[in-house]
Amino acid sequence: MSDLDLLTQSLARNVKRWRTERGFTLEALAARAGVSRGMLIQIEQARTNPSLGTVVKIGDALGVSITTLLDYEQGPRVRIVPADQAVRLWHTDAGSYNRLLAGTEAPGPLEMWDWRLMPGDGSPSDPHPAGTVELVHVLSGDLTLTVDGVDHHVPEGASASFEADTPHTYGNQGEIPVEMVMAVSVPLVH
Question: 62 Cβ partners below 8 Å, 6+ apart?
Answer without folding.
Answer: 15, 18, 19, 22, 24, 29, 33, 69, 189
